[in-house]
Amino acid sequence: MDNQQHLHAETQAIRIRYAATPAREHSVPLFLTSSFCYPDAETMRAVFADEEEAFIYSRFSNPNVEEFVQRMCALEEAEDGFATASGMSAIFSSIMAFLKQGDHLLASAALFGSTHTLLSKYLPKWGIQCDYFDMRDATEIERLIRPETRMIFLETPSNPGLDVIDIEAVARIAHERNILLNIDNCFATPVLQKPILHGADIVVHSATKWIDGQGRVLGGIVLGKKSLIHEVYLFCRTIGPSLSPFNAWLLSRSLETLYLRMEKHSANALELARRLQQHPVFRQHPENVKYPFLESHPQYAIARKQMSGGGGIVCFELPGGLDQGRRFLDALRMLSLTANLGDTRSIASHPASTTHAKLSEAERLAVGITPGLIRISVGLEHVDDIYADIDQALRQSAS
Ligand SMILES: *Cc1c(COP(=O)(O)O)cnc(C)c1O
Known about the structure:
Blueprint (H helix, E strand, L loop, with lengths): L8 H7 L25 H8 L14 H14 L3 E5 L2 H10 L7 E5 L4 H10 L6 E5 L6 H5 L4 E7 L11 H10 L3 E5 L4 H4 L9 E5 L13 E5 L1 H14 L5 H11 L2 H21 L10 E2 L9 H7 L6 E5 L3 H11 L4 E2 L9 E3 L11 H6 L6 E5 L5 H16 L1
Parallel strand pairs: 2-3, 2-4, 4-5, 5-6, 10-11
Antiparallel strand pairs: 1-7, 6-7, 8-9, 9-12, 11-12
The structure holds pyridoxal-5'-phosphate.
């Protein structure tokens, strides 16, 4: 890997690459090989003994995967990382590499649906108990910490409600008690927020979303200090949730445009959120449009402190609840109806009837998912076209 550490992260995301082959290609090739060769028995012994660094087997690593990891490390200012096949396998590995039976995990109440299922259904089966804190009450975390609490896991901004948590404040509480702080940075991406600089020990991503940015492949990554990632590596090379070389190759190309894309997604989203607040449906209650960089957002000050842009997700609450939510989706002409987010194409979804339908009504309300909540993943189309489609669907669904 070329040493590019003196360059800006933005440049490193483009320039870090796995060394060229003898063909001296400019564009990085795809390394479709399960294993790697050694010139002699002694080299092979040294590599297996961890005395010499070299590729062994693609469940452990691969040149394409290594390139993606190094680029992500530069962006997140992390010492090391391990790339996985999906965001969920990154989250699972980042927890299971550290926790054991009898340990306790504390998580933010507003979580991605599958993360919530993992924590509430599977971890207790293996003797790991989880509790959830509401970040709107700063003292609740401290009340819920137990002597066995080993990790705090949180999402900020959260999916889909866009709640923002003060990372530095939680890091202070965690580190006083020797608790690992693990942050899902999917919604912000390292372009807009670098949790490690605010005290996080571990950062996880679903690379499926903004990092790929074009709705093509699944991927994930766990990042952090070398010693912590070594534990994740040992766990993952054993159980095999590794990222495929082809997906890594695509994701590395995606990172070359991540800065550009996130700036445009954020600019489009902020403009859309501002226009929606002026829309007849929301004018009386502009707080029903939610976006971290709107002054009306309850944690606006925290968002401005730890993020350099508000991201690409805008939410709003339709006054007509579940029925209007469904009518709104049916009335859209351009926006896609799909569960994914973080795409060049704008997407609308209705969490109460889809991604969070498995939660009870009470659980949904506890994490801010009201029946009429609509989540827009703002794409790279012209903002006038995005607004026009939402405007006509709002008018149609109101009647
Ligand atoms: C999608 C998502 C995940 C899970 O990622 P996959 O790549 O789908 O496994 C985790 N966290 C958040 C916030 C997400 O949006």
